[in-house]
Design a protein that fits this description.
heterodimer, A: 203 residues, mainly alpha, Rna Polymerase Sigma Factor, Chain: A, 2 domains, 0% strand, B: 82 residues, 61% helix, globular, disordered C terminus, binds zinc ion
Chain lengths: 203, 82
């Protein structure tokens, strides 16, 4: 039965059983839809995820500002819990050193053998400047986090292996990106040059 | 250390999108429900939510979670009451 945001919050704060059961039912249905592309997720796993999600939602009721439907907000939290669990399972046997066997050696990229037109030359020298900035301007932690992310490891998983949390790793990589941008600017490349270099397909 | 062309492109793309001030993953989570509802009904999002769009363009995990949230939005329970 539809209810207002205020009703959801006040009844959940009072730990009203019928409301808790209703929330669980909605989250089970919504996670079923949200995870439809993850064929290996069965009902038992979804129920476990919902159990964890409800605890998280109850802990954060005071943070709900009412700018969306309560159910959308609760579902966004359940999805974070569920995706975190799926990523943990997918990556559990992968170490940072496996995906970054040589993170601190000199950087190199693919170089074209065909005679390069001007734009390709510019891109190559920009990429070279970026590699130099990666070696000179980034701390080892910044480099490790940024490279692991580029290699496809999720932030939560990088965080777990670096003794940190997802938010802190995001901030670490954000600082790293700002340093690389500054490094590229110092080498004479504008934001426009950087954006142009990726907006075109250059072999 | 060798980066593939795709990894190099992705890094350049992210550097190109980098802002001095960005929201982090927790701030994104706090705003993403409102952002998803407004995007779903084609509304122009309020200025504070543009930071969500920028975060989603950089953060693969938040983008994946946002896409999953959008799959739930045709659900009757998520629509406004009444
Ligand atoms: Zn994020």
């Amino acid at each position: 039965m539809p209810r207002s945001n205020e009703q959801w919050v006040s009844r959940l704060k009072a730990r009203q059983d019928t409301t808790l059961i209703e929330l669980r039912g909605i989250l089970i249905r919504n996670l079923g839809k949200a995870l439809v592309r993850h064929s290996h997720v069965d009902e038992g796993l979804i129920e476990d995820m919902v159990q964890d999600s409800v605890m998280r939602i109850l802990d954060r009721l005071d943070q709900f500002e009412g700018n969306s439907q309560f159910v959308t907000w609760a579902t966004s939290i359940a999805i974070r819990v569920a995706m975190g669990e799926l990523r943990r399972r997918r990556w559990k046997d992968v170490s940072l050193s496996q995906i970054l066997p040589d993170a601190n050696t000199t950087f190199a990229g693919t170089v074209d053998s065909a005679p390069p037109p001007e734009r390709i030359l510019m891109r190559q020298s920009m990429v070279q400047a970026m590699y130099e900035a990666m070696e000179k301007c980034l701390s080892e932690r910044q480099r490790t986090a940024l490279l692991a992310e580029l290699k496809g490891m999720p932030l939560d998983e990088i965080a777990q292996r670096m003794g940190s949390n997802r938010n802190a790793i995001y901030k670490l990589t954000h600082d790293a990106r700002k340093k690389l941008r500054t490094g590229l600017e110092a080498a004479g490349y504008t934001a426009e040059d950087i954006n142009e270099s990726t907006s075109e397909v250059i072999a | 250390m060798r980066l593939s062309k795709e990894e190099t492109d992705e890094l350049l793309r992210q550097i190109g999108l980098t802002e001095d001030q960005e929201i982090d993953c927790d701030q994104c989570l706090a705003l993403v429900a409102e952002f998803a509802e407004q995007e779903a009904c084609g509304a122009r999002v309020r200025a504070a939510l543009e930071a969500v769009r920028q975060h989603l363009a950089i953060c693969g995990e938040c983008q994946e979670e946002y896409a999953a949230l959008c799959l739930t939005l045709d659900n009757a329970e998520t629509k406004p009451n009444g």
